[in-house]
Amino acid sequence: MDTRTWDTLVGSMKSAYVKGVREGAVPRPVIMPLVRGELVGLIWVRPTEPGADALTGIAALSNIAAAAGADEVVLAWETQEVATACELPVSGPSPCLNMVRATPDGHVLHQFPYTEESVSAGSGNADGSATALDWDQAPAPRPDGELPPPVEAAVAYAFTPMELDHPNPFGVTVVLMEEDGYTVRLSDDFDH
Fold first, then answer.
1. Is the whole model's pTM more than 0.85, yes or no?
2. What single DSSP character describes residue 52?
């Protein structure tokens, strides 16, 4: 993926987090598969129950990447949200937007810690306040940085060829994931 695409994905995720925090919730974990530098789309995890269901739900984000034959993926998640949902200890900065950029040869973990501040505003929360988000100094990207288990599984399985006996394995995977509650937004340009 070129630098412009990466910067666009980071900017998009940061904007989503600013909006989400303002509305009272960070976005769910999301995977962004790429094929030859072309973004396939964005796929957000389905609603999950705490524990094993959340672990499985996040790991299964890999399905569309595998069905598309992705050669690179980006996953984004919030440290505390994934730790809480998966009943895991918090690892790394919190609160923090994490983005891992992965290929079959390895991954690089990028972390964007932030601070939430309540500000007085005419709109926002029921009490008239709003939450602002300030981005803190980001640590240096970490090649092969430690990933939470479900994200590590999603990265690994994203590059495992999917063997479906179907004329359109990508299309059927999209339909099945949508039926399971995943939010799938495919790029108009992606030629599958």
1. yes
2. H
